[in-house]
Write a structure and sequence with these properties.
Elements lengths: L1 H24 L1 H7 L15 H7 L2 H19 L7 H26 L35 H7 L4 H5 L4 H24 L5 H21 L13
Helix pairs in contact: 1-9, 3-8, 4-5, 5-9, 6-8, 6-9, 8-9
């Protein structure tokens, strides 16, 4: 229980503090203003940012499919039974994190206008902080769907966390790097603010922690998946 509380409290504290700093310093608007030139967002059309946008949820879906295959394989073959929970973890995290929580619940109903839609950058809508709810279906900036799918690639960290910490660390590093690059891409395109991407990571990470303990991946006696 202590580990669970620590794992949940630390990222929540980070999210709250970072959001406060971003709001007080005006970093959302300042960062986006760097890429808005004459009411347009030309940097976002350049590489590698445009390529990252086109990648979209592809890598996340591929990893989720691997999880589904692992879970099915574990259910069929007794000697691979220890693949079931890690496989389910990957599938459920994709469905609940980037899928339900980010893209369905918040993105559709929170109503935060995108940078390119606000008055400061040539649009017609008012700027809203991430904690300010707008009109449902009238703003899809909070949080970032692309970034949430990119940060989902940190998922294997939780599978290897206990038994193979070095492999886990590489997955965390790679997932955070990819998520950060995707976040920059979406900012350069006027699609999202910095705080949208921050919370995309937070929602996926907190969902991963909840599933990690719910599926009892912290209690596996054997490596869940052979590397």
């Amino acid at each position: 229980m202590k580990m669970y509380v620590r794992d949940m409290v630390m990222p929540v504290a980070l999210l709250v503090v970072a959001t406060f700093i971003i709001a007080v310093t005006g970093t959302d608007l300042k960062m986006s203003s760097l890429f808005c030139i004459g009411g347009k967002w030309p940097v976002g059309d350049q590489q590698p940012w445009h390529l990252l946008y086109l990648l979209d949820r592809g890598p996340a879906i591929a990893l989720g499919v691997c999880g589904l295959v692992a879970a099915i394989t574990g259910a069929i073959y007794r000697q691979r039974r220890n693949w079931i929970r890690p496989g389910l973890f990957l599938v459920l995290l994709l469905a609940l994190g980037p899928g339900l929580i980010v893209n369905t619940v918040f993105k559709d109903y929170w109503g935060r206008p995108r940078p390119r839609e606000i008055i400061q950058f040539g649009g017609k809508k008012e700027f809203l902080h991430p904690w300010q709810k707008g009109v449902a279906h009238k703003g899809r900036s909070f949080p970032s769907g692309h970034a949430s799918a990119a940060f989902y690639l940190t998922a294997p960290f939780f599978i290897y966390r206990r038994r193979k910490p070095r492999i886990a660390a590489w997955w965390m590093f790679g997932g955070l790097l990819f998520g950060t690059l995707m976040s920059v891409a979406r900012i350069t395109q006027g699609g999202h603010f910095l705080s949208d991407n921050l919370w995309a990571w937070g929602m996926v990470h907190l969902t991963a922690i909840a599933l990690y303990y719910l599926l009892k991946l912290d209690r596996d006696e054997k490596p869940a998946v052979e590397a």
